Amino acid sequence: MSPAVRPSARALVVCLLVAVGVTVPARATGLVADLSSHLVAITSGFAGADVLLFGAVDGPGDVVVVVRGPERDQPVLRKSNVAGIWMNTARMTFERVPSFYYVAATRPLEEIAGEPVLRANQFGVERLPIAAPAARAGGRAAEEWRAALIRNKRREGLYVGEPRHVTLLGQRLFRASVHLPANVPTGLYRAETYLLRDGQIVSAQTTPLSISKLGLEADLYAFAHERPAAYGVIAVLAALVAGWLAHLAFRRS
Amino acid sequence: MQIYLPIAELSVDVFLLLGLGAGIGFLSGMFGVGGGFLMTPLLIFIGIPPAIAVATQANNVIASSVSGCFSHWSRGNVDFKMGGILLAGGFAGSTIGVALFALLRDLGQIDLVINLSYVVLLGTVGVLMLLEGTRALLRRRRKVGPGKLHAHTWLHGLPLKTRFRRSRLYISALLPFAIGFGVGVLSAIMGVGGAFILVPLMIYLLGMPTAMVVGTSLFQIIFVSANVTFLQATQNQTVDVVLALLLIVGGVVGAQFGGRVGAKLPGDTLRLLLGVLILGVALRLSLELVVRPEDLYSLGIPG
After folding, report:
1. CB-hemisphere CA count at 13 Å for A66?
2. What is the pTM of this model?
């Protein structure tokens, strides 16, 4: 190799590194991931959406994907039979509960890592740090409330755990399809991708995902909540006009 | 084709909603009732949260009452003085009703109260209509004349006696005020115009001429449901205009056809059919109250 060539080769390498550096966060060595879309718009035709999470790893290992929705205080109600009628008689509010949670991996989570690692990183719906307020319930009752919250969230399709749902292509490329149901809460979501080897996390990357109402739907919702009086007046006027138009149509026929 | 309802925050098939509006519109045209008492439970059955179903239905009721009231007004069948007093009661009742609604919603009991009110009211009205319908059918066969129209009871001894020229009545103003108040509360909690309770009360309790009753009740219902819609929108943010608009469009079309079919059927048969229908809805709703739910736990509205 002639010394004249070296500087240009080095420049090329630097250029490549810079180009790569733009898309790869510095700490995520060995793992690159992205979403097919960073914004899911809820418009009038919205009936749920699928977001593709894809990326590459630098060698064999297991990939775990977690998608979390914004945290909210979630009340849970329990019915019991009062004089032959089933009614809500007890209520428990769980604080800062993820409104949406999705986890998928290349293999069942228990085969990928030990319980302490899984728990520390909140891998798996059952390992979410959801707890009933200690002052309100303890022991088995607390566990029952917690299980009920998770069961109801699962039923609504808002807590999803899908082992083997991350597919690896040739040990390097991976993809996972995240389904967001029609009732998905709006807000700022976080898509986390982890690379694990020998039961330990070796690399991780976080990608933001925004789910928001757009267009007429967003405007109507904002209008109804920010200027409720004006919204109410318009709703009444619209119905009055509709009724009047109907009357005109009736009279003619 | 799915459409996303911005306030209910879920997506529903457009044609299901239009069809529902048309179906209920058909029945309301045929039986001459608003149909709110059928629409609200059906909206709940298809998965609309009860609080939103009730508030949105109040919005829908405005439209159907306006078109009905106009045609009665053009025939001079609206007693504005009576309507005004009913309305005053209705305003007070519905305002208290919406506040009660918000309170029950916070307590997590609104679904139960909506359900219970429907079962009790529809059950009672349905049974009464069936009895009345069968009696009328029997009477027609036996050719027995109807009973006395104006029975004098303690109700006629109440103070604030007022003359209602159009209805040819001289009764206490407290009576229509109280009726308006009661129906106003129900209207706020159940999302109905309340004609199915208002009309029998006006005929049997006030003794108003039947011709005046429908137009006058519609006149009152327009303003009470407008009040309910406005208050639900400001206090609970539960009025979904997209949902309301779809139901109105379906309802207008359905009512056209329903009216034509209704005109061909005899009144007694109509009342019997309506009674059966009302009882059916009441039974379906009561099942939800007494059958053990699949999951005793449910999620509240996140804060």
Report:
1. 19
2. 0.76
